[in-house]
Design brief:
179 residues, mainly beta, Immunoglobulin-like, 4-stranded antiparallel sheet, 2 helices, MPT63-like, signal, DUF1942 domain-containing protein, Immunoprotect_excell_Ig-like
Length: 179
């Protein structure tokens, strides 16, 4: 019942126009999801996507373990982080689901946050296939949040059909082909 409620609430959240207009995909940039009426606004920041050497108790890896640091903040209203909406994505578009059910002391807790509160922790991905280039938060709205540029290297993922880039006023200097 709780899981169904969490997934149902995720479906009503959407990326705001400002995220789409600015196309701010750089790791470390805050991006927000809000309910249609603006009563609930959660802000996510993802940083430091890298191969991981962490030991995950009770979990048997199938591929290479990757990790990132995620922060969620209740910018408005009460927010329960829906961690299963995070994915690591390869240049070819292959998604690796976050290992949200594997509890670790370093992990981001899925506890409810009151306005102004935040929570930070590691998120882990078991990557089978190509190395990930990005992390996305996909709430099923058709416009996922995305972090892909580290500020020093050019993004190699094809961005031609990126819904967040579709309305950019200026091309991204780090995306392939200057998206």
């Amino acid at each position: 019942m709780i899981t169904a409620t969490l997934f149902a609430s995720a479906a009503v959240l959407a990326a705001p126009a400002t995220a789409r207009e600015h196309g701010h995909h750089q790791f470390g940039s805050p991006q927000q999801l809000s309910s249609p009426d603006g009563a609930v606004v959660q802000e996510w920041v993802v940083t430091d996507l890298k191969k991981s050497t962490a030991a995950l108790p009770g979990y048997t890896r199938r591929g290479q373990l990757w990790e990132a640091t995620a922060t969620v903040r209740a910018a408005n209203g009460t927010v329960t982080p829906i961690i299963p909406n995070l994915y690591a994505v390869s240049a070819g578009g292959q998604r690796s689901v976050v290992l949200w059910a594997v509890a670790t002391p370093q992990g981001i807790p899925a506890t409810t946050l009151t306005p102004g509160q935040s929570s930070t922790g590691k998120v882990y991905f078991d990557v089978v296939g190509s190395d990930p280039m990005a992390v996305i938060y996909d709430a099923g709205t058709g416009t996922p949040l995305m972090w892909c540029c580290n500020g020093s290297t050019q993004m190699q993922m094809p961005m031609e059909n990126c819904p967040m880039c579709a309305e950019m006023k200026q091309p991204c200097p780090r995306c392939r082909d200057g998206m």
